[in-house]
Amino acid sequence: MPIIPDTDYGARILRRLRNEEAIWMTAVDENGLPQPNPVWFVWENDSFLIYTQPNARRLRHIARNPNVSLHFDGGEYGEDVVVFTGESRIDSDAPPANTHLAYLEKYRTGIARLGADPEEFAGRYSVALRVTPKKVRGF
User: Fold this and answer.
1) Are residues 25 and 70 in contact, defined by beta-carbon separation less than 8 angstroms?
2) How many other CB atoms are found less than 10 A from the CB of residue 25?
3) E strands within the chain?
4) Rounded CA separation 16/34 (Å)
5) Residue 15: CA atoms inside 13 Å, Cβ hemisphere, count?
6) Mean pLDDT across the stretch 21-27?
7) Number of neighbouring beta carbons within 10 Å of residue 68
8) Residue 124: beta bridge partners?
């Protein structure tokens, strides 16, 4: 069952999932402290696909505790809040970033801003994470 409501708020969430460049992903470190970081993502099959570097600390954090939250910036006045909570896992079935057409379409310019081509980027960000949200809240 999809977690995004069939309401005006749900339509706003879907627009943000299509159009936002970054979402904040928060994992919990070994000391129980939240560790938020902005990440690039694509929304597909009611889940987030995120590519990360193989030495990223978030991989160690989610290996210990797969529960994460993701949220967008809340708007200029905090009027557009969207927070997802769910579970993260390595997705070994995901294609490399440079062959994922929706990801490339969304981030080709950003990849170039990093001074990389898609193949270099895929080599650096070679681990695919899949976050399956269980709840969404906001206003």
Assistant:
1) yes
2) 24
3) 23-28, 34-39, 42-44, 47-52, 67-71, 82-90, 127-138
4) 24
5) 7
6) 98
7) 26
8) none
Alpha-carbon distance 33 to 134, whole Å? 21
Does position 63 have pLDDT exceeding 70, yes or no? yes
pLDDT at residue number 59: 98
Task: Locate 87 and state its tokens.
Answer: 């579970």
**Cα 35 from chain centroid?**
14
Residue 134's contacts (CB-CB under 8 Å, 6 or more residues apart) are 3, 85, 86, 87
Does residue 122 contact residue 96 with C-beta atoms inside 8 Å?
A: yes
CA dihedral 98, 41, 54, 85 (to 10 degrees): -160
- CATH 2.30.110.10, domain 8-92+126-138, yes or no: yes
139 closest CA partner among 75, 85, 84, 81: 81
**Residues ≥6 apart with Cβ < 8 Å to 116:** 124
- Of 132, 131, 139, 133, the closest CA to residue 75 belongs to 139
pLDDT digits (tens, 9 = 90+) for 105-135: 999 999 999 999 999 999 999 999 999 999 9
> In the numeric block, which tokens belong to residue 91?
């997705």
